[in-house]
Write the structure tokens for this entry.
Amino acid sequence: MNLKIALRDAQKSLADYGIYFVTLTLAIAIFYAFSGAYPQALYLIGTTIAEKNMTSLLTLQYSLRIASVLVGLMFAFLIFYATNFFYKRKQRQFGLFLILGFPKGKIAIIMAIEILFPALISLVAGLLLGIGVSQLLGLFTTSLFAASQTSFAFYFSWDGVSSSAVFFLSVIALSLLLSLFRLNNASLLKVYLGGRKNETEALQKRKKTMMAMLIVSLILLLLSYGLMIAAFITTSFIVFITGSISAFLFFSAFSTFLFSRAKGDSKHYYNHLNFFVLKQANSHINSNAFSLAFVALTLILTAFLMAMGFGVNFGYQGKETVWFGFSYTALYMGLSFVLSACAILSIRSLSEAMDEKEHYRFLLTIGAEKRQVKKALLKEQALYFVYPLLFALLVVALGLIGAYKDAWKYLSCDISLGIVISLAIILTLYAVYFLITYGLSRQMIFGKEKK
Amino acid sequence: MGASGSGKSTLLNIVATMDKKTSGEVYINGQSIDSLSSNDLSRFRRENLGFVFQDYALLDTLTGFENIALSLSINNVAGERIRNRVIDMASLLHIEGILAKYPYEMSGGEKQRIAIARAMATSPRLLLADEPTGALDSKSSQTILESFSELHEKRGASILMVSHDPFASSFAERVLFLSDGKNVGELLRKGKSRKAFYEDIIGQMAEKEASR
């Protein structure tokens, strides 16, 4: 009976499941590739080139270990995020079960099945994808960084499979426990109303607090800039912390600030549904400060990692294995970070498109043309994607100058080509993700297009 | 007027061009709406019709002012004119004080008056209202119905309202009775007082009930 309800739910809310499933699959694929096959390949290449140069090998292993901790954290965050999103989407239904008098134990079983079932499928799919992707990446990186080592080898690692599975299942179990805990402690009404909580209340935060947050954020940002330009390598850790706090404050405060400015401009504010778009986007930006700050920071980190990795590689070709290995690692981490950041943005955008479906359809009811409403949707989602990107670019633009200077000073290599290439890769990935997300939400709101 | 399932809302939805009829012709203001494409229908709706729903259908991300401005923005009215129109409608419906509020800060009656202002702001030829007082207490209901009367008398608005409540119907000039999809009777107010018209409606309803 419980299984039946859970499975029927799965059929009904395929869209919810789709997003949850895709995110988990992607996360597992990234994690597998990183924890399993890739280091092995890297290690093989590294040993060949280093020719038993122990210092280089140790440095390589050390940097890999740090990198896998970072990727692991990102992975855990993504899974928590996806499960939380999923729980929120289902909350109303669980609330209805509670009202109908289902015992909590039974609901917990249904919930566990609903969370675990797609999770297990995505584990299998993710591992398969991960094996495929690591072949491609292995091939790609081998040909990119070691022209002589183009011989193809099938990278498969039991270590990668088992560590991905164990890590994934423990994070899923933890987030399931968290969801059960939340259900157990929530009041009936709160659970039931949870699905349609009014986010606009976030708009009502006091203006003075906003201004203070914004000023602190800007001061921290300037401080980070200063440190980065003065000495990029030695201060990077401090810069990372000040940058994080700055980003978080920025995203919670700036949208309200921006909005209060936009309101004064009555000429454009009411034209072309602009105010509708702004208000929709703004209500989400306010309540999603954390995710947006996270995305912005990830983009920043990726830009630096990739620029340094690529740059050092191109400017310093093959002279020193330490840097060689670092650029391997940087590219890989960069790609997985950008994918994770994009996945988070897509999840948010899609879940919000689902929430706003009625709003957009209502515009059609009172006579708006489809073209007009689609444009409003495009604007809203573009705002949502462009916002963290702009912030990231702002930081990256100045930060990379510092990185460029230091790379020249300490390593005497020119990383400008690396900077250009990595920014191009990041922006392309980002744009592709945006277009996919917009296409999906358009379909979600207007249904399948008849040609 | 009519009981649940008599076809009131279906009729309204067909007039609203949101539902398709199975037979017959629909003319609004001498214009047949059958030949119109979906874009033409959208234009027809936004230029000629105003909508008021039982559940208000206000957008919770927008203030009262912005909810009213929505229908004007869809019609590509310029910013400054939107401001004037919203303020004009607000003073007519006595809602100046709640324009800056969000829907969750308003009472049901206030929400519905915002919704009426939104529907009327574009000066539609026909205002369609589906059980507009269905979710309201009696005092708010009366305010809403009086607003409708005022819009009709002062602005010459034509209002097509669906209701099963004889009190709400007594504010109208003309009442059609529906039953199982058919028109089964009609009453005209002809200058009578609202109270007298209410008695007429009650009498007619009792008659229909007795002959069932």
Summary: The interface with chain A takes residues 18, 38-39, 42-47, 49, 51, 57, 59-62, 66, 69-80, 82-83, 102, 104 of chain B (CB under 8 Å). The helical segments of chain B are 8-15, 38-48, 64-74, 79-92, 108-120, 138-155, 166-169, 194-210.
